[in-house]
Write a structure and sequence with these properties.
The chain is α+β, with helices and mostly antiparallel strands and 86 residues long. It contains two helices and five strands, in the order E-H-H-E-E-E-E. It has a five-stranded mixed sheet with strand order 1-5-4-3-2. Strand 4 and strand 5 form a beta hairpin. It starts with 6 loop residues before the first strand and ends with a strand. 19% of the residues are buried. The model has no long low-confidence stretch (mean pLDDT 88).
Length: 86
Amino acid sequence: MAPRRARIAFSDSAAKQLENITSEAEIHALDRALVVISVDPDVGEPIPGDTAGPQLRQYADEVESVRVLYFVTALRTVVIWGAQEL
């Protein structure tokens, strides 16, 4: 049996970014990155910073030219903090 994918949620700022995406290529790039993160939430690199909250991570896909900032909750929900083109 395959492992369950992580649930993806969006912060308010990330949801606002999604509203502004109009290009099919940008949607495709972000979709691919979200699939990778949902399969393996630990794939991204930790971003150094405050240790009081959840560890902010970044996943960069050089092929699709997209970077996603996110953190993983205790229940393995991936919360997308933001995304940008590389």
